[in-house]
Task: inverse folding
C-alpha cells in the first residue's frame, strides 16, 4: 500500500507513457491494461494469446479484473474471441478466471521507474523478463548502478585528494576549485551518458555502469601518484 501511495504522489505510473495503457507478457499471453487502481483492480483488460509461431489464438476483453487468493485474476463483464479452423467464435462471460504469474506485486513494479525500485524488486523483475524472453537491459543497468553506488563516494574522494596538495601562498586556488567542480560534474554526466549509450547500442549494463567508475578511479590514482612525486 505504501508503494502505491508513493507512486500516486510521485506520478510515476508508466501507463501514462503509452496511449494504449500498460503492457506485460506472461508466457504466450500478452496483457494490456488501460488503468490500474490503487487497490490493484484492473480496468479495461485485454489478453492476446499466441502459439509458438506467434499466431494469434484468442483475444479476451474484460471491463474489470480482480486478484483472488487462488493466484489468478478474476475477469468480469467480458468476452472471448477464439480463432478456430471453423472460424472465429465469440463467447461472452460474466466472470472468468485467468491464472497468471503477473500478479499485483509484479504490476506494482511496472508502475515504478527502474531507478526507484529496490535491488530485490529489480532482481525479481529481471528474472521474470528473462523467463519471458524479453529485453531487460534497462532494469539490469539500474541494478548494477545500485550495486556499485557505494563505491562512488570513494572514487570522488580519490579524485579530490590531489587538489588537497597546494600551497596557500602560491595562488591559483580558485582555478583548482573550478577544475575540481568540473571533474565532479563530468563524473556525473559521463556516468549517465554511459548508461544511455549502453541502452541505445545494446551494450553490457555491467560494463556501462562500472566503466566511468573505473576510469575516474584510475585517473585519480595517477593524479595522486604524480602529486606525491612532485
Result:
Amino acid at each position: 500500500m505504501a508503494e502505491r501511495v508513493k507512486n500516486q504522489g510521485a506520478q510515476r505510473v508508466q501507463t501514462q507513457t503509452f496511449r494504449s495503457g500498460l503492457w506485460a507478457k506472461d508466457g504466450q499471453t500478452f496483457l494490456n491494461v488501460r488503468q490500474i487502481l490503487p487497490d490493484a483492480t484492473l480496468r479495461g483488460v485485454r489478453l492476446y494469446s499466441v502459439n509458438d509461431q506467434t499466431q494469434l489464438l484468442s483475444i479476451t476483453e474484460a471491463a474489470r479484473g480482480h486478484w483472488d487468493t487462488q493466484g489468478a485474476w478474476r475477469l468480469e463483464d467480458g468476452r472471448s474471441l477464439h480463432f478456430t479452423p471453423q472460424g472465429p467464435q465469440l463467447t461472452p462471460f460474466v466472470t472468468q478466471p485467468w491464472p497468471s504469474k503477473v500478479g499485483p506485486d509484479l504490476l506494482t513494479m511496472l508502475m515504478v521507474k527502474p531507478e526507484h525500485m529496490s535491488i530485490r524488486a529489480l532482481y525479481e523483475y529481471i528474472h521474470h523478463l528473462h523467463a519471458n524472453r524479453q529485453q531487460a537491459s534497462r532494469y539490469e543497468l539500474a541494478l548494477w548502478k545500485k550495486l556499485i553506488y557505494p563505491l562512488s563516494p570513494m572514487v570522488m574522494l580519490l579524485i579530490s585528494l590531489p587538489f588537497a596538495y597546494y600551497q596557500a601562498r602560491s595562488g591559483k586556488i580558485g582555478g583548482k576549485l573550478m577544475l575540481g567542480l568540473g571533474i565532479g560534474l563530468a563524473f556525473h554526466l559521463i556516468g549517465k551518458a554511459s548508461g544511455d549509450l549502453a541502452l541505445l547500442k545494446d551494450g553490457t549494463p555491467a560494463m556501462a555502469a562500472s566503466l566511468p567508475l573505473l576510469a575516474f578511479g584510475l585517473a585519480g590514482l595517477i593524479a595522486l601518484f604524480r602529486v606525491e612525486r612532485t
